[in-house]
Design goal:
alpha+beta; 3-stranded mixed β-sheet; two-stranded antiparallel sheet; single chain
Length: 138
């Protein structure tokens, strides 16, 4: 019974996350840009907490490099959505046989821009799909 309850719990959590992502996409299309001060340390921690329930999360090494010597202003909800999707995909689509699974989040800011890089040692995206990665729901 315990095994079946754990499977049910995982399925419910994944479905809940999927529904939340759809709601976020819907809100994104209707909301104005809300510019506010961004603390990337807090933002990344909040994103990682969101995915802490995933079995893949515990098995994935998280490498966080944030250089934020300046205040940076942007839409935190949209940044959280984009970064959350990248981190989630990095954990979901890892290589099963890899000895060490990792995701690296690197953020460097200036007053004018933020350079955000998310990398992992997962399977990657097949070249045939690359032209479509920014299409909605692809």
């Amino acid at each position: 019974i315990r095994i079946y309850l754990d499977l049910q719990d995982k399925s419910v959590r994944r479905l809940d996350l999927f529904i939340q992502e759809i709601i976020d996409l819907s809100r994104n299309a209707r909301q104005e840009v809300a510019v506010e001060a961004i603390n990337f340390h807090d933002l990344v921690n909040e994103i990682l907490e969101t995915y802490a329930y995933m079995p893949e999360f515990r098995q994935t090494k998280k490498i966080i490099e944030i250089e934020q010597p300046h205040n940076f202003y942007s839409d935190s909800k949209r940044l959280k959505m984009i970064l959350g999707n990248l981190v989630s995909n990095a954990m979901r689509y890892h290589l099963e046989w890899s000895q060490e699974k990792w995701v690296k989040i690197s953020i460097k800011t200036s007053p004018e821009q933020a350079t955000i890089e998310v990398s992992d040692n997962g399977m990657g995206i097949a070249a045939v799909h690359l032209p479509f990665i920014f299409d909605m729901f692809y």
